[in-house]
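Batch manifest line 401
LIGAND: zinc ion
JOB: complex structure
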Amino acid sequence: MYVCGPTVYQRAHIGNARPFVVFSWLRNWLRETGYEATFVHNVTDVNDKIYDAAPGRSAQLARDATNWYLEDTADLGLGTPDEMPFATDSMPEIVALIEELVAAGYAYPVDGDVYFRVARFPEYGKLSGQRPDRVEEQEPNPLKEDPRDFALWKANKPEEDTWWDSPWGRGRPGWHIECSAMAEKTLGPEFWIHGGGLDLVFPHHENEIAQSRSVGRPFARIWMHNGMLELGGDEMHKSVGNDVSLRNVLDTWGREATLVYFLTGHWHGPIDFSDTAMQAASARADGFREVFRNPHVAAPADAWNRFAAALDDDFNTPAAIAVMHEWRDHALLRRALGVFGLESLAEEEEAPAAVVELAERRQAARAARDFDEADRLREELEAAGWEARDAPGGYRLVRRP
Ligand SMILES: [Zn+2]
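JOB STATUS: finished
ARTIFACT:
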């Protein structure tokens, strides 16, 4: 799987986390069902957005923002992609592919830029359903043969602090050719799944197909585009205010609620991001935790197959999570949670020493029949976010939802 990764110029938005989450889970599920799966997720570290965000110091911003992305996605607890190619590490492959396109007549240099000749590729527009005669202009330049033609290479401009030498002079690649070259470099000329957000269908993925298929690479067999996050207004997500970065959502709601939130939406549909949705996700996470505090009840023999059938049917996570909520079977639920990086919901959080001390004092008060003191200590425990539940041999400390 090749899944378009971040353009590194700012902290990732919660919506940018969706492809990372969905395709990390898909990798887990493919492996669980016996496939060999490789998840490639690129880093676009040369791009107009980075030059615009940090004129004269784009390279430093790209390094910083790459680190933020790695830190924030690591905190999701889903592991890392198997390969993360960087555009800046792929210049020989990018330049070679452009040279091949020029030699085959699919691209032409103009004044230090190189453009793809859209009219030469009849399949153009098939993926996105755009009619080739109606494709809007992507990169205006009066020197282009056709307004639909898009840039493969761009001549260096004075405010751009990074450049590479090429047969067309000093410059840097266009965004689309980076992905064609990095996908081939990591997965070869043909591979199974190409993923990314729905906003990338046109022009990004349409252009990747044109660049790779015109010169004989079969390229991706399946395209998977995840739906977008719908943010509504600020009043919809007061908890995070206007900072809808993945970082802030993780700090505010925690990793588990964030993952459960993504599970509740079908990957190809839109999903609302709101306090209501996050509260619901948090409550569902608590529901799973609660199962492990209660006795194990073996699930019927076909339980796992029902869960698997939901995921095998277009990776329907809302249907899969509905099946999981029916289970009181600890082993089965732990295994299913593991597919989504949520096995931690099966582990009881260990109470800090101060909380244990409160609980011990409460036990002693109850033993001495000092119920007022025991009540007071119970309230103190609750204020600290814990609950002491009666259990064989005394009590058990449980985090309050
Ligand atoms: Zn891409």
